[in-house]
Amino acid sequence: MFGGGGMNPRKMKQMMKQMGIDVTELDAEEVVIKTADEELVFSDAQVTRMDAQGQETYQVVGEPETRELGAGDDAADEAAAGEIPESDIEIVAQRAGVSKDDAREALEAEDGDLAAAIAKLSDTPRPRRPGVSPCAR
Q: Phi first, then psi: what are they for 65, rounded to 5°?
């Protein structure tokens, strides 16, 4: 963790602790830094958090992979294309007790908002069955 120019790493840690600097290694799987036009993706990066007098500083060590902004974000691509994910349709259909086609229509009308689609479908009066009072539902 510390090179210290020939200084014993244990001694260096002890000195930092005495100065009120707490150092923690983080077990990060991936670190993504987004700029205006690209993303820097660090896989298996070594991440260190230093806390000195309440100010946290992070150090990332590793080789980044550069990719265009938003590349590899399938969920965002689907949403940007205006497509409603099948899982959302199934959730709305199940919760509201309607067909998948009705759930899809409600989600499209509510711009993909699950809660609003369920509320809309739940507020819609259902056809009355002959011989069954509204209280029996």
A: -105, 130
